């Protein structure tokens, strides 16, 4: 009995397969949906779980923060955060939703990425920025997108199907499907040509 209690209090000591099952069951009822076969590799930080919908066979790495907020400093919000099936969030990914974040199926999100649909107000004559109402626009990552490490996706960004965003880039606008984009702000440098079967410079 003592050994069982110790394992419950210290799930990191469980075998990998058992540990994944332990975390799945721990979080299953804390989200609007946690799909079948989803893998949660360790404890994660989450807020507003009932507004978060995670698809089948997603993989969520350690130290991720997945948050939705229905209220911010008295500002009523109606968030919905959707993560499609087969999507992978690596180590320390932060997704923060105040209105609408849609992440498609089969998306690869490398370590340290941040995805949001909102920002603080920035009126320099108003209250502290932290206390100003949030401003938000829908953020969308279509199916098969790949974000390199430490990519920042800001409110209103729309990344098209199967596009690749280079490490440390900041996406604030629209990236067309089948594109490679890098930089701050991220700009398209290559697009896939279905006739030549090559990524070609633009």
UniProtKB/TrEMBL annotation:
CDD domains to which the protein is assigned, alphabetical: LbH_MAT_like (cd04647)
Would I find Acyltransferase among this entry's keywords? yes
Under Gene Ontology molecular function, one entry of this record is:
acyltransferase activity
Looking up SUPFAM superfamilies in the UniProt record yields:
Trimeric LpxA-like enzymes
What is the top-level taxon of the source organism? Bacteria
Which Pfam families is this protein grouped with?
Hexapep
InterPro entries, per the entry: Hexapep (IPR001451), Hexapep_transf_CS (IPR018357), Hexapeptide_acetyltransf (IPR051159), Trimer_LpxA-like_sf (IPR011004)
Keyword set, alphabetical order: Acyltransferase, Repeat, Transferase
Q: Does the keyword Acyltransferase apply?
A: yes
Q: What protein am I looking at?
A: Acetyltransferase (Isoleucine patch superfamily)
Q: Which organism is it from?
A: Mucilaginibacter gossypii
Q: What is the lineage of its organism?
A: Bacteria, Pseudomonadati, Bacteroidota, Sphingobacteriia, Sphingobacteriales
